[in-house]
Amino acid sequence: MGASAVRQAQPADGPRAAALRIARSNDDFEGILALQRANLRQALSPGEQAAGGFVFLQHDLAVLRRMAAKLPQAIALADGRVVGYCLALAVGLRHEVPDLEPMFVQFERCRHRGRALSSWRYFVGGQVCVDREFRGQRLAARLYREICGSLPAPYEVCVTEIAARNRASLSSHESMGFRRILDYSDGQEDWVICAWDLDGPGR
């Protein structure tokens, strides 16, 4: 899903506090979109991508609102500004984001803990993105947990897709307990699909 800009770096003047909650207003969603635009791969130099991660997919307000109608979308706020977000996509909305259809096709090949991924109750995690001034506070993990604490139905697994060259994101997800379940290439990019058990330690 082109998941994440999550570089673990301390701001020069020390970490600033951010409050987490579920997005609910147009201002919240516009804040997500602004942070997303600032961290799109095409907005960053190769060095910035390598150091801090990046996101692939650009959403719009209508899609975010449809996603939020099904599953919680977590945000981190500081001084009224969105400084981090984690999105959640219900499988039933797969056709709302046509660019993700190749990912869902690959999900059909995936196995997790000896079972087909389709046999688990799962949702798609991503993107997750943290403003560079607020990195180094494990906000990505906290945002994922904010979503998990607000899910409207029992889910067993969170699944996400990360560009293989996005080492910052892979490292962040692996430190949370995400496990690689499939590597593949679409001919332009190498991808890693990872799964996170929602009943694991620390959830």
Textual characterization of the structure:
By secondary structure, this protein is an alpha+beta fold. 29% of the residues lie in helices and 27% in strands. The protein has a single domain, classed as Gcn5-related N-acetyltransferase (GNAT) (Aminopeptidase), CATH 3.40.630.30. The chain has helices at residues 26-39, 46-52, 61-70, 101-107, 139-148, 167-176; strands at 4-5, 19-22, 74-78, 81-89, 111-112, 115-116, 122-130, 157-163, 179-185, 190-197. Strands 1, 2, 3, 4, 7, 8, 9 and 10 form an 8-stranded mixed β-sheet that branches. It has a two-stranded antiparallel sheet with strand order 5-6. Residues 5-13 have low confidence and may be disordered.
**Residue-averaged pLDDT, rounded?**
87
Order of helices and strands: EEHHHEEHEEEHEHEE
Helix count from the secondary structure assignment: 6
Low-confidence stretches: 5-13
Helix/strand layout:
Blueprint: E1 4-5, E2 19-22, H1 26-39, H2 46-52, H3 61-70, E3 74-78, E4 81-89, H4 101-107, E5 111-112, E6 115-116, E7 122-130, H5 139-148, E8 157-163, H6 167-176, E9 179-185, E10 190-197
Parallel strand pairs: 1-7, 7-8
Antiparallel strand pairs: 2-3, 3-4, 4-7, 5-6, 8-10, 9-10
Question: In summary, what is this structure?
Answer:
By secondary structure, this protein is α+β, with helices and mostly antiparallel strands.
Key phrases:
alpha+beta; Aminopeptidase; two-stranded antiparallel sheet
